[in-house]
Amino acid sequence: MAAQCHTARFRLVPALAKALNVPTPALRKPGSAWVELPRPAGGTQTSGQAKIGYARASTVRQSLDTQLDSLKAAGVEPDLLREDLHGATRRPELERAVALAREMRASGIAVALVVHEHKRLGRGLALAELAEQLRAAGVALEFLTGELQGAHDPSGVVFTVLAALSGMEREFIRDRTLEGHESARRNGKAIGRVLIPRSRDGVAARYRGSTAVLVSG
Predict the structure, then answer these.
(1) Catalytic site residue 58?
(2) Which residues form the active site (predicted)?
(3) What is the rounded CA–CA span in Å between residue 117 and residue 54?
């Protein structure tokens, strides 16, 4: 009976012919007219899972060995590890890790950025802004230890809290900047860059009447 009902499927997928029971949708019945069933919405299916690991040593005394060992134990493939050494203001390997995560997620792969501890990604506003980037790209976060230990979905509470902190931090910086400007105005101080005269006459007029003392020795 199975061979009669599923002949076309066996031709397309020969491995099905060896199965005793071939599952079929409820609408598929012998003798019924064929109709195309609804297809899954695009972008809702994933074609696999991947973990991208990131490790960073912020001081000379710190070693990457512990972080790398824990990342490998968590299932991160060696070729998906990114390392930033101490002393750098920029973090090129973190930028590469985020870019790779975006690319893999766009291709339908479920991706998680894995770090030993959340402090390895940054603190305060830097961490919140990174979380916003990952959430926008649909990339998960996983911390192996520390206060935020665990796997966190982009729509989860950790991302929500970090986004709120980011907004609060920006508002705080904005308020402090405006307060500083207002204080400067009250004290008669100029705000902004000092305008430099472009012409030689303008420079002379600016410094006319001033006295310069040269000390040679």
Answers:
(1) yes
(2) 58
(3) 10
Q: How many CA atoms lie within 13 A of 156 on its CB side?
A: 13
Distance CA 2, CA 199 (A): 93
Identify the active-site residue in 32, 47, 58, 107.
58
Q: Taking the domain 50-167, which CATH number applies?
A: 3.40.50.1390
Q: Determine the distance from the C-alpha atom of residue 25 to the mean position of all C-alpha atoms in its chain, rounded to a whole number.
A: 39
* Beta-strand pair 110-115/140-143: parallel
**pTM of the predicted protein model:** 0.55
Beta bridge partners of 83: 55
152-170 residue pLDDT tens:
988 787 777 776 665 555 6
Largest alpha-carbon pair distance within the chain? Answer: 109
Write down the domain spans for the chain: 1-32, 50-167
Q: Closest Cα partner for 154 from 176, 171, 130?
A: 130
Write out pLDDT tens, residues 93-150: 999 999 999 999 999 999 999 999 988 888 777 888 888 899 999 999 999 998 889 9
| Residue 160, φ and ψ in degrees, nearest 5 | -65, -45
Please tell me the chain's helix, strand, coil percentages from 3-state DSSP, rounded to the nearest 5.
45, 10, 45
Cβ neighbour number for residue 128 with a 10 Å cutoff: 21
Cβ atoms of 114 and 51 closer than 8 Å:
yes
CA torsion through residues 148, 117, 136, 170, sign: positive
- The secondary structure element, H or E, covering residue 115 is strand 110-115
